[in-house]
Amino acid sequence: MRHTQRPARRVDARLSGHVGAALPLRARRVAAALVLAVCSAGALLPGASEAAIGPGRPCDLYARGGTPCVAAYSTTRAMYASYVGPLYRVKRASDGAIANIGVVGSGYVDAAAQDRFCAATTCVITGLFDQTRDHNDLTIEGPGGNGDRDAGVAAGALPVIVAGHEAYGLDFAGGMGYRDNHTKGLAIAAQPESIYMVTSGTHFNSQCCFDFGNVETNGRDTGNGHMDALYFGSMCWFEWPICYGSGPWVQADMENGLFFSDTGGSKNRRDTGNPNPFVTAMLKNNGTDTFAIKDGNAQHGRLTTDWWGPLPRSRFDPNPPSFRIPSPGKPSETAIINPRLSGYRPMRKEGAIVLGTGGDNSNAGVGSFFEGAITSGYATRATDASVQADIVAAGYSAAPSTPASERPVIRFVPAAGKRDGSDSSSFARPGVR
User: Fold this and answer.
1) pLDDT digits (tens, 9 = 90+) for 97-118
2) Does 37 reside within a domain?
3) Is residue 100 a contact partner of residue 429, using CB atoms and an 8 Å limit?
4) For the sheet containing 367-369, what is the strand order?
5) Staple partner for 83: which of 78, 120, 142, 287, CB 3.0–4.6 Å?
6) In this structure, are residues 303 and 274 in contact, taking their beta carbons and an 8 Å threshold?
7) Percentage of residues of the chain with pLDDT beyond 90
8) Residues forming a β-bridge with 283
């Protein structure tokens, strides 16, 4: 997405232990009692009752609801109860060696393997393995229409706890992103899909664009409706009617607009932002006439329905009319406010996947990512509720920090044998699932 840059508004409050250098997580001693946030994102809107459809990991639940995952990523845990493959790949700064980081018996990341491999140096995550059978793996994003080649995320920058297990999230600090332009199973054109991710309401900015979802296959802005992606941050794209509160908000990035509703701006006065340390964000789009946005506290409670209604209006209902104003800081130029909202009904999705940037590689956004999935089909409310319940049960929390003087020294002994693969240009997948 391309836009006139507005001043950044970065929130300084961060997760405990959320630092920019890769530090061994195994060196941190987990407190006996983990304090979970208890502030819920709120109840559902009237009439939106939900009944959970049983236990399971997120992609098990989506499959049970008739909307199977076609892409699923996490640096913290398996997205299927039966998944035993790798979650992500890291590259070591000291010698360029690589390692795949997988799961231990209970389906949670083997963070100790990363700590051993990256000890006394730093590592970068060069790719994320898709846990579905479609193998839509993400690698570091190349140049696009509105951004140069991106960097990978520092592998040890965001230590967290999930289900009592040590893990790392992805800390996007701007100029970072992952992509797959050649996918299998993704929604195309007006086909329906659902998307969710777990992110953080303490790490965001107002720049474009911290996205996860379905985007253009050529890394360019190819027009309205060619994207269907979750956005999380404090950018208020449409100046009219208004964005309530100060964010960060879950919005739908459908190209050339971040949407709260069918007219762009928010119609929900209660949607003032979600500042929780861990946030569940959801977007559903049936491709022809309806989309829904939900968010919740990923540590507690149910989802809130922020919008459920028509896709952005056609040329027959711009509501309100577009107008021009002087661009901020450039009086000689003008910017269009509330452009005519055509091209979104029906959608024109292309089927590439992006994480951390806009569809045209607009890469000034920052944010956190712990897990997320894209499905085939428009998920039911019961499925949404079950996925949220599973996320809450996973028990995300900030990792307790330990002074450097108390960290044990960990030395890595290189393993014998040939290394497989290298980086984003050679992302070989082991023969699993």
Assistant:
1) 999 999 998 899 999 999 999 9
2) no
3) no
4) 367-369, 165-172, 158-162, 397-398
5) 78
6) no
7) 69
8) 195, 293
Give the predicted TM-score (pTM) of the model: 0.81
Q: For the segment 178-215, what is each residue's pLDDT rounded down to a tens digit? A: 999 999 999 999 999 999 999 999 999 999 999 999 99
- The parent domain of residue 316 ranges over 53-70+173-399
Token match 């890291």: residue?
90
User: pLDDT for 344-380, tens place per residue?
Assistant: 999 999 999 999 999 999 999 999 999 999 999 999 9
Q: Where are the beta strands (DSSP E) in 234-329?
A: 249-253, 258-259, 279-285, 290-297, 304-310, 323-327
What mean pLDDT comes out for the span 137-147?
96
Per the document, the length of the chain is 433
- Collapsing DSSP to helix, strand or coil, 174 comes out as coil
The mean per-residue pLDDT over the stretch 261-277 comes to 94
Is pLDDT at 250 greater than 50 in this prediction? Answer: yes
Q: b/e string for 222-231 if b means 16 or more Cβ within 10 A?
A: bebbbbbbbb
Query: CB of 355 within 8 A of CB of 164?
Result: no
Instruction: Flag whether 391 is in a domain.
Output: yes
In CATH, what number is assigned to the domain containing residue 394?
Answer: 2.60.120.200
Catalytic residue numbers read: 255, 360
CA–CA separation, 243 and 295 (whole Å) = 16
Provide CB contacts within 8 A for 307, sequence distance 6+.
260, 261, 267, 268, 271, 291, 292, 293
Structure tokens at 106: 């209970």
Q: What φ, ψ does residue 169 adopt, rounded to 5°? A: -95, 180
Supply the DSSP symbol for 112.
Answer: H
CA distance 49 to 268: 18
Whether residue 333 is contained in a domain is answered as: yes
Look at the block and give the residue holding tokens 């130029």. Answer: 333
- Confidence band, pLDDT 50/70/90 cuts, at residue 41: very low
State residue 174 phi and psi, 5-degree precision. Answer: 95, 140
CA 329 to chain centre: 32
